């Protein structure tokens, strides 16, 4: 099964915002999509299962057709770095564990997987491995979400350099406006367009209240869908 991984400059920069909008748009375009929030920290117990609110947003989109455990196989209660949350329980995270969790979560006969990454690219899993290493092993291309706020240029260019260094294909980037009062907002976006060697596939405005349908309207889905349909048809 083919997939795309949503990554970002940091935590809380809009990966789920874009991811849910993308999954919604792809479902309405006729693709049979599986969302996968592989690992989450910050959950509450619901009928004996720890659930994360971001993963629940994906669960609502598929309307019960995929069990929660297949959408979010690893969830920890405290809202801290996942490797620290795992340590609190005497567990350990590793590339091997996360890749195995990905494979065991896949639902048969789906066209494509939209996997949301954890934190930023260099989110630690243990003393030696990061989430970037998971991306390398899975071999799926990424879509890169940039949270538009002060400091985003440095964070974005460092993250893009890491992707290029590891030869990880990137389909495009997303400008997610976190600060509606950001000075020189359009100039920051233009700077990134000039410096990033990938297309801008969505510019998501500051939305209050948040709406998946509104996010979906701002995604240039044609380019993404073309890639996903090709990938879905690949054995």
From TrEMBL:
Active-site positions on this chain: 37
Cofactor: Mg(2+)
Pfam families linked to this entry: AAA_26
Record keywords, A-Z: ATP-binding, Biotin biosynthesis, Cytoplasm, Ligase, Magnesium, Metal-binding, Nucleotide-binding
CDD domains referenced in this protein's UniProt entry, alphabetically: DTBS
Highest taxon, organism lineage: Bacteria
EC number annotated for this UniProt entry: 6.3.3.3
Quaternary structure and interacting proteins, as annotated: Homodimer.
Matching PANTHER family: DETHIOBIOTIN SYNTHETASE
Protein name: ATP-dependent dethiobiotin synthetase BioD
Native source organism of the sequence: Piscirickettsia litoralis
Lineage: Bacteria, Pseudomonadati, Pseudomonadota, Gammaproteobacteria, Thiotrichales
């Amino acid at each position: 099964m083919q997939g795309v991984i949503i990554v970002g400059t940091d935590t809380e920069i809009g990966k789920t915002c874009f991811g849910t909008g993308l999954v919604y748009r792809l479902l309405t375009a006729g693709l049979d999509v599986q969302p996968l929030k592989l690992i989450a920290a910050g959950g509450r117990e619901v009928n004996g299962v720890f659930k994360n609110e971001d993963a629940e947003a994906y669960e609502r989109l598929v309307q019960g057709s995929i069990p929660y455990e297949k959408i979010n196989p690893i969830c920890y209660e405290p809202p801290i770095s996942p490797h620290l949350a795992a340590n609190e329980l005497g567990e350990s995270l590793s590339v091997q564990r996360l890749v195995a969790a990905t494979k065991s979560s896949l639902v048969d006969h789906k066209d494509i997987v939209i996997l949301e990454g954890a934190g930023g690219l260099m989110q630690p899993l243990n003393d030696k491995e990061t989430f970037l290493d998971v991306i390398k092993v899975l071999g799926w291309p990424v879509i890169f979400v940039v949270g538009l706020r002060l400091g985003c240029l440095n964070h974005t260019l460092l993250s893009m350099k890491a992707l290029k260094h590891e030869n990880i294909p990137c389909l495009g980037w997303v400008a997610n406006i976190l600060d509606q009062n950001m000075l020189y907002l359009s100039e920051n976006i233009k700077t990134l367009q000039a410096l990033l060697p990938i297309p801008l596939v969505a510019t998501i405005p500051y939305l209050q209240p948040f709406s998946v349908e509104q996010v979906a309207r701002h995604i240039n889905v044609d380019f993404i869908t073309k890639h996903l349909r090709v990938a879905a048809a690949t054995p």
